[in-house]
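Comment thread on ticket #2218

A.B. wrote:
> Attaching the input chain for the structure job we discussed in standup.
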Amino acid sequence: MQRREFNRVALGTAAATAIGTAAETESAAAAPRPINAAGMAGDKKKAVAYPKPKGLRNGFDSVDMHEVWAVRQQPAVRVKLEMAGKPQAAQLDDGTIIAAGFVEPPVHKQSRCTIQYSRDNARTFGTPVVLEMPGRSGGFRSLKNGTLILGHTGGISRSTDRGKSWSTWEFPKNIVPGTGRLGLGECHGPIELDDGTLGVHLYRVAGHYKWNAYLLRSTDGGKTWGDPTQVPTRTDSDEISYEYLPELKRIVGITRSSAAQIRRVKGFADLVPGGRNAPLGSEAGDAAFQFHSDDGGRTWTDPIPTGLGVLQAAGAYPLSLADGRMLLLYGHRQFPYGTQAVGSRDNGKTWALDQPIILSWHSWSGYCGHPRSVQLHDGTILTGYYTHRIDNPGDGPVDPGRGAPPPHHNGADTGELVRWRVPDGWPHVG
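C.D. wrote:
> Ran it. Output below, let me know if you need it in another format.
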């Protein structure tokens, strides 16, 4: 006899019905309810800590391992440049794009700045021109009147004929207090205020992994520079990039600061991912902070964390867009190595850190980044950066990554440009 028939005969129809109902209720109670986003966030808070590898620079310095990434691809145009270390681009009124970078031994007998031109919206570039300016490039911009400003080792040069000829202003040794080396760092280049005043970052070495930072000004279109104002980074910033927000009359500064910045204010270590273990006196403790001035750079707010993690934003660069949104682009020196960007809809007060755009992800190690950018006439963004690329013929050993000596610019490190469009509606609010 079948079990169902036995129940009906032995217990009667009503009893059999009751037994069936109880079984169904028990089954329904045991079935878990689908978890929603809030529930998943709660599970994340209760998750067991992910054991990270030891070492100061291990690729996990401030990465949240209790996450997955939802990725959406979109078109872009990417070009690898020759003889253009850490490139940065500018666009002239006629649409011509000029990329500035540098070349150094053994590719060239001396370290020199370079420029190269594109007349097809950064799809291709002509033969690089080696300039007389020594060392590495340190900021490149086209002013509103078309004058080109190129910072480099030892000074700042300008050109009024599209880069054919240049005049150079050299750093006076006594321009700011101290005796340490002067430099521009790998900054974005000069900002241009409403009255035509130009402002650019200048640092002076003050000790091991310590620099005094200043805003340097020009009132004659970049011919001469002076009138420095010290900015409140408290001796640990050699890389600061500025953006000017004309509607607010505000200068926003983004600084790559050391772990000393994290330790100066109680609570900062909890606002900077990886901040509690950030080491002093090493790149492995670097993080991005921001501050601003509403009086032309004479007085400044104290730096506060951007929310990006230790060794995540090295360095970081602000870019104000024509539609009012703001970008913060940064070298991502953790997995995936490369270049990323986050956005803001409130002039940089807050950044949508949960919605990064991955502009490059193919560096073999953390030798990468410095994504300096310009918004082109057609609204797209042209971002220059460098990445650690290797040629590995045959089935040879993989790249040793962090255990290797620093790659050589224009060799294992190569400059690239990517032209991309900021997605509509990004970053999403709510």
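A.B. wrote:
> Thanks. Noting for the ticket: Residues 3-43 form one domain.
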